[in-house]
């Protein structure tokens, strides 16, 4: 199959205060989330002027990707669409059709398997194509959690963050990886049914292992952040803030956090880590440094270009890990029958 374009498909975020509540309503539609909970989360966005960093960061990635395509002789326009805020994926696919695009590669801004990390992007593609007559064929690119360029970028960011720890505490600094928590039931169903489940948590653990090895850390922790939903529903634990308490109790007085589960500084990164976790570390007299996410690193655009070239030139995929990866799908079909089944909503 030949390709006419690339679509960067992301989560979306508000870009002004009046966008915040409509955006959150889009995110939580059909989930029965109480209004008071939305208003609580809205304050996180309003703390930063009602602007999520994600859209601007994605536009920067597109500029870098277009430049990378130019150096590689790849003549494909790059489009931008979101699940929850403008530019909406449906509107972008309609514009692609109007521009004459017949088939496109889709890069999701999630490196992972699981419902939220992979299948929900398939649903976005399916919904957009169903809404647009004569929509282009859309091929989603594979999961890239263990791509060498992603691991190299995180490793360099960890090294840089370590230098922000005072010299007297640097040697004993604890490396802690974080990723977005999900319900335990969603992790159990993550991946093709015959693969044993827990694909998301296994991939996060593998990426953390690769990053730690690349930076020479023999010991490290993998924890979770940004859980939501009713307290009676089990989510992946421990939470990062609770984990800092546990580390302090064992005598750890310096920590380097690496948000390995995020490719750019989403609101969850800047709120949960730069705000809440940083504040907790201060209360514990713990030196704190947070590694940068890879989205602003030039290697991230190179990574996307390599994924595209896998389809344009049949170049062999580059992977460092041993945990399975999937994600390459056509027109919103799941990776396999029963793969990453949508979670049941609990009110």
Describe the structure.
This protein is of the alpha/beta class and 347 residues long. The protein has 12 helices and 9 strands. A 5-stranded mixed sheet has the order 2-1-3-4-9, with helices on both faces. It has a 4-stranded parallel sheet with strand order 6-5-7-8, with helices on both faces. Strand 7, helix 11 (267-283) and strand 8 form a beta-alpha-beta unit. Helix 4 crosses helix 5 (115-131), helix 6 packs across helix 9 (199-215) and helix 6 runs antiparallel to helix 12 (298-312). The chain is globular. The mean pLDDT is 95.
Summarize the structure.
With 347 residues, this protein is α/β, with parallel strands linked by helices. It has helices at 20-28, 35-46, 54-72, 89-98, 115-131, 148-162, 167-170, 184-188, 199-215, 240-249, 267-283, 298-312, and strands at 5-10, 78-82, 103-108, 137-140, 174-180, 221-225, 254-258, 287-290, 329-330.
Sum up the structure in keywords.
347 residues; alpha/beta; globular; five-stranded mixed β-sheet; four-stranded parallel β-sheet
